[in-house]
Write a structure and sequence with these properties.
2 strands; mainly alpha; Arc Repressor Mutant, subunit A; globular; 4 helices; two-stranded antiparallel ribbon
Length: about 90
């Protein structure tokens, strides 16, 4: 999926998540722990926006298909994807 720019509030959450997880896999519970002062709907919105805009990859957990594992796209790769999209239009 091609990466698209993020709204500022989502980018701030991404930055905190990148600082904590980098390219390691993580769970919803770990994100929830990181943003413990935010409500569940806000956390779900952040995850959804990151996924829809190509900054987050979600996979089903092999041990429990009801749960997902997440992985962030690196900032460098995200910028590269956006640059390719812009240069293909020129």
């Amino acid at each position: 999926m091609k990466t698209r720019p993020l709204p500022k509030w989502i980018m701030q959450h991404y930055a905190q998540m990148w600082h904590r997880f980098k390219e390691k896999e993580f769970t919803y519970e770990e994100v929830s722990s990181l943003f413990k002062n935010e409500n569940e709907n806000s956390i779900r919105a952040v995850i959804s926006q990151l996924r829809k805009n190509g900054w987050l990859i979600a996979e089903f957990n092999q041990e429990d298909s009801r749960k997902r594992k997440y992985k962030l796209k690196s900032p460098a790769l995200a910028i590269e994807d956006m640059a390719e999209k812009v240069s293909s239009r020129l």
